[in-house]
Amino acid sequence: HAYQAAGHTVSAGLPELYLRLRDFDLVHFHWPEELTGWAMPPSPRAMRRVLARIDALKPATKMVCTVHNLLPHADRGGESEALYTAFYERMDVIGHFHETSRAAVAARYADVPASKHLVHGMQDFADLRVHATGKTAARARLGVPDDATVIAAVGQVRSMGELALLAGAVGKSNLAPVHMIRAFRQPHARSMADRARRKYLMRTVEQLAGVTLEGFLEDADMVAVCEAADIIIIPRLENQLNSGVLPLAMTFGTGIVAPDCGVFREMLAGSMNELYAPGNAGAMAAAIARLAGKNQSDVRASNLSLSADWGWSRGVACILGAVS
């Protein structure tokens, strides 16, 4: 939408890229592993096909990517590093949502020229605002009490450790009345022991949850969760390059409890949101309590002000300026 708003004709999807249905002035990539079918590890044949297609488009077509991860989430030992290195070498611009991302990628892929990196600013989910109905209506939609402190966990919980952190922190938060919206996807269980532990932890979470939403949510349901919640919690054990939950919550001004590291520290430090020591359930519970004690209308207004200049319109303008 941002490219269209800037006056450009836009095509999306891999068929357009591979079937050569038209010539492109610019191609903007997001996940290199999507081009190889999300396979881990990417096969040499798939890598050759992807890189050959990119090479065939250059130099007439400008190549841009936005970084989401240092490596794919499913990568277990650097098996995609060769793909990412070859991919970045072919880009004209390597875009980042924030300085933390630029520094981390520049350090890991040190042979890629520093001049290619561009911090184009954080994204938002402004297109979802068409589903906004306000806090009272959102709580009514979800069956959430209007007078409760509402905590929500959304997105993908990626490990048993994150699930244990979430369950432990909410259980220790000692808020009353408290209502939890469980709208996250469970971590993958790789063994029988993992399945047993996941079942135990999920039982704990479900005892705390007043509302449970399974799987990938429809846009209207996701917006209702963001508007109904006072606090969205992001359970992390260690640093993480990016999180879609951060701009999602900020699009609606919802208060955030996040780990004190990386992108969260860069984007939220000094705000009314609360940070905690990664992996520490007690610290996370204390952060939840601190945020719950603040005036939630003030928190929401502050977050909307903080994120007012986020979004792809700004990002696309930066990208177009860099490639012109």
Main β-sheet, spatial strand arrangement: 7-6-5-8-9-10
How many helices does DSSP assign?
15
Q: Would you identify the regions where 5 or more consecutive residues have pLDDT less than 50? A: none
Strand tally is 10
User: In which range does the helix fraction lie?
Assistant: 40-55%
- Terminal Cα separation, in Å? 20 Å
Question: Biggest sheet: strands, sense, closure?
Answer: 6 strands, parallel
CA radius of gyration:
21 Å
Oligomeric state of the chains in view: single chain
Order of helices and strands: HHEHHEHEHEHEHEHEHEHEHEHHH
Shape: globular
Structural class: alpha/beta
- What is the mean pLDDT? 93
Which percent band covers the strand fraction? 5-15%
Kindly summarize this structure in a few lines:
Helices cover about 45% and strands about 15% of the residues. The protein is built from 15 helices and 10 strands. The two termini are about 20 Å apart.
